Amino acid sequence: MAEQLISTAVHHTLPDSYVRSEADRPRLDEVVPDADIPVVDLANPDRAAVVAQIGAACSSHGFFQVLNHGLPLEVMLAAMAVAHDFFRLSPEEKAKLYSDDPAKKMRLSTSFNVRKETVHNWRDYLRLHCHPLEQFVPEWPANPPPFRDVMSTYCKEVRQLGFRLYALISESLGLEQDYIKKVLGEQEQHMAVNFYPKCPSPELTYGLPAHTDPNALTILMMDEQVAGLQVLKEGRWIAVNPRPNALVINLGDQLQALSNGRYKSVWHRAVVNSDRPRMSIASFLCPCNSVKLGPAEKLIGEKSPAVYRNYTYDEYYKKFWSRNLDQEHCLELFRT
């Protein structure tokens, strides 16, 4: 199955199956290159100021970067290094892990959902389930040898950061600190280690097309040397330029629903380039499958009726995976 992966060969021309229609191309020359994405310093001793900054970022952008987030630099560097080492494995080694089955808890795959999409995306990725670690780590790649230990440490640190952010986001909505963590139940955690090889025609394709995340919160470690993440703001795509040692936080669909539409799960995409490959590690905190989701009761009133109906995450996730990635916002299917 190695021939399915684009990371196993050098490509001098873009295969037809990756070429987007004229109307659906990234138009890279129209991207705003240096727009300000909100940045929050979590070491600021003024908690009220941090809460206010996060609330403003969640309502205006749905995206922000965090500095002094508590993840040790050596843990971040080790995770990125072992991710690069993984994608340098031989095609034969990688072929052992390949699957195009979205239901598999651990798989190396390509594009987004190659079984049903008509145009592919210039991305290979390793998908890992991460909680509870002791259940899933034995299925993870045994090569490179440090992979399981390094990524386990990274997963634990990211999970704790996610819960800290939940508390700050809850406060920013006027809810109890532990509201989000409690209402989402025993959180699942996934990870996507994304590899975007050098692309011969980046103007014709995407690493990932515009989409929102179906989960609650995404914590992204970007390649500091190579930009590629872009966010839609007021009808224009803006580049998210990596900051040293920062992490990018973006709200998923479930926090937009929980906030009764106050906060945004924003359209974002990944573009590719012809000069250098790019790596990113996305960590997803996801509600328990059976928990009842929808707007927080405290945020519903006469002047702010419920925007979304209640549903389970299992129902939502199945709906999300049954569609194309760049179809209408999946939350639109759950409006009251």
TrEMBL record:
Swiss-Prot/TrEMBL keywords: Dioxygenase, Iron, Metal-binding, Oxidoreductase
TM region(s), chain numbering: none
GO biological process, one term: defense response to oomycetes
GO MF annotations in UniProt: dioxygenase activity; metal ion binding
InterPro entries named in the record: DIOX_N, IPNS-like_FE2OG_OXY, IPNS-like_sf, Oxoglu/Fe-dep_dioxygenase_dom, Plant_2OG-oxidoreductases
Co-factor(s): Fe cation; L-ascorbate
Residue span, Fe2OG dioxygenase domain: 187-287
Keyword Oxidoreductase attributed: yes
Keyword Iron: yes
Superkingdom, taxonomy of origin: Eukaryota
Pfam families: 2OG-FeII_Oxy (PF03171), DIOX_N (PF14226)
Family: Belongs to the iron/ascorbate-dependent oxidoreductase family.
Designated name of the protein: Fe2OG dioxygenase domain-containing protein
Native organism: Triticum aestivum (Wheat)
